[in-house]
Design brief:
With 262 residues, the protein is of the alpha/beta class. The chain has 2 domains: 2-79 and 171-261, 3-Layer(aba) Sandwich (Rossmann fold), CATH 3.40.50; 94-168, no CATH class. The chain is 42% helix and 24% strand. The two termini are 30 Å apart.
């Protein structure tokens, strides 16, 4: 069943058109990857989906509802979460406090009770903390760093904390912008495993932008290739790797052969 649908997305900045009639659909529970050369428009697509950019033309629907003009916070409340290529954490705060921020939109405590941290506010925070520690922190294997400030963590762990904060939003759709950029081989393998587990165990739909072709082809259900703001093709990893225009524009003959033999 289609969960997210984008139709004829067009986006320009001044006289530069960065997206040209981009259309695609993502099924419920699918890992859908978007790849392409630098400057192809990948992050612009993600920014349109998340509401950070407002497309010039086109529509975006989440579970059949038109969200094309909704603000990022409204989309988040409907179940859309985001991780960023450049880590966007509060470096002076602990891991646990950063993750808890992801669930702020679900808190029900009134302003007065929260200000004085009265009974209902305290109980709600304890329930939230227990949920995060039992479900998310254990899942992502970061129990040992939960009390540490983010600034003290290695880069790979910071990326994992950002993923944890997105999961705390209880998303239906998770947008991931280059989740393994800058990681070593071991960290990349761990992140790929977590992404697969998120799909399989939690049923979350994942839209991912990534330059690591081997990882994309290993974990994705379908892949869309874009270049100069236009779609080249969309299909299974196997069909995309052998597409002649994809090989010419992005993969290169040797890399395509290597990806096919991996």
């Amino acid at each position: 069943m289609t969960l997210l649908q984008a139709d004829n997305l067009n986006l320009s900045f001044g006289g530069l058109q960065v997206l040209h009639d981009i259309s695609f659909s993502v099924d419920d529970g699918e890992i859908f990857a978007i790849i392409g050369p630098n400057g192809a428009g990948k992050t612009s697509i993600l920014n349109c989906l998340g509401g950070f950019y407002l497309q010039d033309h086109g529509t975006i629907r989440l579970d059949g509802q038109d969200i094309s003009s909704l603000s990022p916070d409204r989309r988040a409340a409907m179940g859309m979460a985001r991780t960023f290529q450049n880590i966007a954490l509060f470096r002076g705060m602990t891991v646990l406090d950063n993750i808890k921020l992801g669930a702020h939109s679900y808190l029900q405590t009134g302003l007065l009770a929260a200000a004085f941290y009265w009974g209902s506010a305290h109980r709600e925070e304890m329930r939230l903390r227990a949920e995060i520690e039992d479900k998310i922190i254990d899942f992502l294997e970061i129990e040992h760093i939960r009390k540490q400030p983010v600034s003290a963590l290695a880069y790979g762990l910071q990326k994992r904390v950002e993923l944890a904060r997105a999961l705390a939003m209880r998303p239906r759709v998770l947008l991931m912008d280059e989740p393994v950029a800058g990681m070593n081989a071991e960290e990349t393998e761990d992140m790929a495993r977590f992404i697969l587990d998120i799909q399989e165990e939690w049923g979350i739909t994942i839209i991912i932008i990534e330059h690591d072709i081997h990882m994309v082809m290993d974990i994705s259900n379908r892949v869309m290739v874009v270049n100069f703001g236009q779609e080249i093709t969309t299909g299974t990893p196997e069909s995309v790797q052998s597409h002649p225009e994809v090989i010419k524009a992005y993969l290169g003959t040797k890399q395509a052969v290597a990806a096919g033999n991996s």
